[in-house]
């Protein structure tokens, strides 16, 4: 791999946003924003405590050689009610920040809207109201008035697609609405606000202003291998439709002053066109100086009749969103650096006059804090690969002026909270200590060199692990291959070293290089609980991702001791490159024995004992927290929990999430243990009700148990939800058919299956992603 130097004056920087780092959500007169309200817990505070520690953060950037810092301004800090009364202490903060940046020789780039609308405006309709766009212009002018003399570059909006469609259509972001019509109307008002804001900035003399869009190439699975392919008509239409919804809905109004012709009929059908007034698009299409491009991952689709619309893409009926056969980040996002080149090529061809800047690009990977730092090789490789792609685009003539990495700090990743790690600087959220990760040091070198060195980031070897763990190479090898003959202390030391260094066992890599079979085993044990839909999703999605990656799948059922032996023999004989294992619930040795073969293996579900085997799990703890918080928000105080078998890791996590949330509010738990089936739910609920006559709610760790609780409530003459609220978990089909329909936590089966397949591909790619956590979601129905 050669060196790659970047143009002179190429701008190297980092990005952050106000809600994700500032904290201090109720200080110095800041008003609440929709994200304060949307968050289940008040997780916007303390965030990175940047409001207090901004000087330290600027110093960090200075040490890294950062030339430009893109931050966002919190609207409700400046205008607590969204308009009208100005909160000067809020403006003072940005004043101080900008001065500090300038002192450090860092160019400030300000984004005016990074998703944190003042709640006061939301209360009056938020982005569905045209007035919000007018208020935005007032806000933009005000901020410019205070810091415009010193701010180099302005962005009106960050990713309006996300704010409009994840906020109003799928509802996974604030304000959590689920109305396709609202999403289109909001998108238009955001575009209008961009136009009005731009006008306000220009009126005061802003020299360089633009907008930031999240752009992704839209491709079919077939095009992943060969972009020059001619697509069948239906697929071409599917691609065009999603491209219109995701990319062109924003690109064309901003850069051409009109909506894409093929989008308008869709908008009209869903939302009407009454919200688009004459003259709006002239405003929206005023020239910008710079287009910010955020790139993370591609979108892969194909036509499939009768597929329902994806909630985030209203109007996408008949389009199947496909998985990408590539490695993934811990967020589960496929890694495809060439996607960045595709986006840039397209922009250069279609809008050759537009100057570009990569305003976000980066990755969430699990970090391990070791005594001597954080060796985040995967993050480094991710950025490196994307910079190489960017270098190629520059050679092709793309007018990209700079690269701003997302993100400087580990911070609040919106609905996913603190567990996502996008920073090149680690933040310990209990002490707020900052610690540079290896990726930060590496980025510092890239900046100093104005480009990439010849050497790629190096993966640790068996020897490095041995040195760190203070044991012999042979011991490491025995632990990595799960051999029993190692003391628990030595094993623990090796496991720690492996985690800290991000070591990927070499046996696997060797076997891959020397004896690739291009086949993969999908091993299914039948889980005791809720298995059917999960198993069919696993078969469907794992197979399609892995086949897409050119692998032949061997399906193997692990239901008897003899089948276990057969599977192990098959894997030991290196008949496969890798194994996807869906283990039974509860303890089982098959995973361990398969791991010992040295062939890469990934698991569905967190293993009961810590090991080196990477896995995909659902956020059971987070789901249980959301369920319990929801009951508390509905005013319930005496909440009982019906708990499934405690040998299941998922049940342990669900109980832990429930207890933690009660604890936060100083409430005592009431626990009844149950088995798996409805009957045991009835019994446990009876027990709870007789032991705690004042009980006003029940959280059950599964829907089956919750349905049992419904039955027990009926039997006891209690009205649901008036006398007793009930929340389940899993969102099985039956949950929507009970009377009344059950409030529950949705566990996304397809996402788990996709993540599982991609995790294996990551492993085969030599990446060390120890786990992927799939988020769960509260589904509110009538039992609460
Ligand atoms: C982008 C957002 C940013 C961050 C990254 C991971 O969509 O602009 O705030 O959440 O994704």
From TrEMBL:
Cited SUPFAM superfamilies: (Trans)glycosidases, lambda repressor-like DNA-binding domains, Periplasmic binding protein-like I
UniProt enzyme class: hydrolase
Recorded coiled-coil stretches: none
Reaction(s) catalysed (UniProt annotation): Hydrolysis of terminal, non-reducing beta-D-glucosyl residues with release of beta-D-glucose
NCBIfam families, per database record: BGL
Pfam families noted in UniProt: Glyco_hydro_1 (PF00232), LacI (PF00356), Peripla_BP_3 (PF13377)
Enzyme Commission code(s) on record: 3.2.1.21
Domain called HTH lacI-type: residue spans: 460-514
GO MF entries: beta-glucosidase activity
Family statement: Belongs to the glycosyl hydrolase 1 family.
Keyword set includes Hydrolase: yes
UniProt keyword terms in alphabetical order: Carbohydrate metabolism, Cellulose degradation, DNA-binding, Glycosidase, Hydrolase, Polysaccharide degradation, Transcription, Transcription regulation
Protein name: Beta-glucosidase
Lineage of the species this protein comes from: Bacteria, Bacillati, Actinomycetota, Actinomycetes, Streptosporangiales
